[in-house]
What we know:
Number of strands: 20
CATH superfamily of the largest domain: Glycogen Phosphorylase B
Number of domains: 2
Shape: globular
CATH architecture of the largest domain: 3-Layer(aba) Sandwich
Pfam families: Phosphorylase
Distance between the termini: 31 Å
Largest sheet: 9 strands, mixed
Helix content: 40-55%
Bound molecules: 1-deoxy-2-O-phosphono-alpha-D-gluco-hept-2-ulopyranose
CATH topology of the largest domain: Rossmann fold
Number of helices: 33
EC number: 2.4.1.1
Strand content: 5-15%
Protein name: Alpha-1,4 glucan phosphorylase
Radius of gyration: 26 Å
GO cellular component, one term: cytoplasm
Family: Belongs to the glycogen phosphorylase family.
Amino acid sequence: MNMEKMMQDKAVSMYGSDLSNCSNEQIYLLLLDITKDLMANAPLIEGDRKLYYISAEFLIGKLLSNNLLNLGVYDQVRDVLAGMGKTLAEIEEIEPEPSLGNGGLGRLAACFLDSIATLELPGDGVGLNYHLGLFHQKFENRKQKELPDPWMTAQSWLNDTGKYYPVHFGNMDVEAHLKSMDVIGYTGKKNQLLLFDLDTVTEAIVESDSINFDKNDVKENLTLFLYPDDSDEVGRKLRVYQQYFLVSAGAQMILEDVKAHSWDLKNISDHVVIQINDTHPSMVIPELIRLLMENGLSLEEAVAQTEKVCAYTNHTILAEALEKWPSHFIEQVAPQLMPIIRELDAIAAKRDDNPKTRIIQNDIIHMANMDIHFSKSTNGVAKIHTDILKDTELHDFYRLYPEKFNNKTNGITFRRWLQACNPQLTKWIISKIGDGFLKDSIELEALKKYAADPECQKEVLAIKREKKEELAVFLKNRQGVEIDPNSIFDIQVKRLHEYKRQQMNLLSVINLYQEIKNGYVPEEKVTVIFGAKAAPAYILAKDIIHAILVLSDLIAKDEVASKYLQVVMVENYDVTCAEKLIPAADISEQISLASKEASGTSNMKFMLNGAVTLGTDDGANVEIHHLVGDDNIFIFGVDSDTVIKHYEKADYHPQDILAQDSKVRELVDFLVSEEMIALGDQTSLGRLHHDITTKDWFMALIDLESYMNCRKEAYAAYADQNRWAQMMINNIAAAGFFSSDRTIAQYNEEIWKLK
Ligand code: H2P
């Protein structure tokens, strides 16, 4: 394929001009066109059994580089552009990032689609096409402000299939319009991401300069936003409308596929597997049963088939995320499901007389309970998480169905998280161990023998330095912030949540700030970087963002402290940003309260790019710790058993720590100090202070001292650059296990059984 000629021809046909005269935007659009054509001609992956990965989120990120890479034409395009004095990065700046996800859950779904196609397994993603995404985060007066994120442009990766599926709500009928995107694997074959939408949705109903809209008007608002505000009943009901819309259209489409293949619906489980990603798509179970019955199966047959078709992944033990809907919601939104859910509840009651495993309890429908009873598999997403599910959170279910429970430790696609975002490091690895690791990631282990080699250490440090400089340029352009590539880049990027403990990081930074004010001179300057969106209705999370932004300015204004310390909060943290931040990181902050972070996936991305983890023994950190050994990681904090016991006994009180430890008291009180209040909002800072001093539900204070000490140790270790580089290489070498290709191979062997 002559890429230069293809691009030339496109320039002429699209713009009637020579390629050399095209603007970056024109080049992006012509590359989009060429890539879409190449993908349109790629063969579909087929088989006599197919997976549908159904999910509320798919955080796919920009697609141009990734698609070029998987089509095998990345280098050619890069070279043509280089000949014109341009880079792919410049061109990709034009591409809007699809706003179809929130955090790790959605990004995992996207990594999985990449690996499913790469392993040539027939499997499509099924989701919704949110016009205005999650939201666009802006900082105003040092606070998060939410704005719509209109990511859809006239030309995009979306295709219109022209297909519609009727969805019957209790009070109205609508038509789900199916859009699609090609998902190309590394071997050049493709699956699809199938996204349902509603033509009557009207972006103009959103009030200007906000994300507020009339939540009652479902025909106009249904697919406007991902996770609409659920702080009131209409908002919660809107989420149920979205969920039923997704599963009803999805189940109809699946049955249509089955019929098109002339497969027998009575044996649908021989041909179809549906992976339910968290509880948002759980209603697919009763909906599939309903549709199978409409197609002539008896209730018993439909239930038996559905239980063999569906598999459920649990991504969290947080009660707030295990959805429960009042049955009157379902009565209103999808009344046709209620008789089936009642039947399922009755079957569940026959299987187990334990009231805790019932689906309907006090007129509330427990979605996860329905998933576990009527799926063939329930998996957690890291070893410790699955153990906690079995031993405590879902213990009653584990006793009932031990054979259903299994672990699938998460993974990440190395195509995006190494090859595309860190070509320098990829090239270096290839120069040492060849390119076999791109197909079999475990081959990265061969790097271990270079860890102690001073020449290699110099080389990885030089690459890290280059990525830090790239990040500095990126942040300057994107946000006008200047950072110092000579400093330690200490980074925490993830959804904002108290259990992830961004507030503990903040308190530790306050400590460093105060020490510097008191005369301490750090050996290395530190740049602490945060990136996080807070759910619009999660007040305390927004208070934490406010406190970070206030502290950031406070330190910047201080002549002495700013010489040694800078705090940056990246605005509108997204996949694009992550692709710049992660390769540039020295320290990966993974500091969740042990037992609470199911897995984490940024921890894997960071280690693969040579950052060293500073974290608790939680989620996949436990497996990282095991793989790299004590010498290549910084672990602190109480363990998960201790945390679980505190919750059981309800004996954790922050007041006890504050009474004993005057230093901790001082740090917490600093939140409402004159200095902070001078720049910040007293109500917001006061609320945060009050919460930490009286509740601290996710125990930031329990680990604060050990965290601060461990962080200092990490900074001290960094000063010995050879030793540090050795840790970097050891981390990269151990990262092979975390390829999503490995995760997907395990899902397939143990759950999906696709050929
Ligand atoms: C969640 C969990 C993470 C996990 C991810 C994917 C819900 O993501 O909390 O621990 O790695 O799913 O399984 P997040 O918090 O980033 O939204």
